[in-house]
Write a structure and sequence with these properties.
1 helix; alpha+beta; single chain; Porin
Length: 192
Amino acid sequence: MLARRKGPQREMAYMYTRAQHGAAVMRTLLLLLLLSFVFGVADARGQTGGTRRIRLGPQLSYGSSSELGLGGRLHAHLRSPDRLSIIGTFDWFFPDEPPGEDRTYWELNGNVAYNFRIEGTTAVSPYAGGGLNVAYSSRRPEVGGDGASDTDLGVNLLGGTLFGSGPVFPYFELRVELAGGEQFVLTGGVLF
């Protein structure tokens, strides 16, 4: 049977666990960035038509229960069928923390979207789709007490619009999370 840690030992164990969690998140982000770079370079070398199929960019999000979030997005247009895109996102949210509590919340999303065509313009490209959502949350008291963490899998329904036809594409999106994060998320950003 394991003995419960008290006092300074408990604080050290908590700090070590937080450091491990932070390192795991950073490794995941770096791996996603590396994979998107590798696939982006491979895609750019294999293109002959002149249009980029994979775009990356920062995003700013606001969740109905998690508030402000910062993150990144990978938007990949499939060659066949040509109206589908894969959208991968990661957001680190900054929810309100009650006094005396440390709170962490992030989401990882993978979606497939159908791109609608508007006759006569390429500057506006609406899309709609769905996918999966992984939401991680943890709460820990700043001093003493037990904390808790939870990881949930959910389903996304989303709709948005890409704007522009040059090297920079601003976008706007509304995502509804069923289970997982269980919130509405409004997102905007730019893709390069």
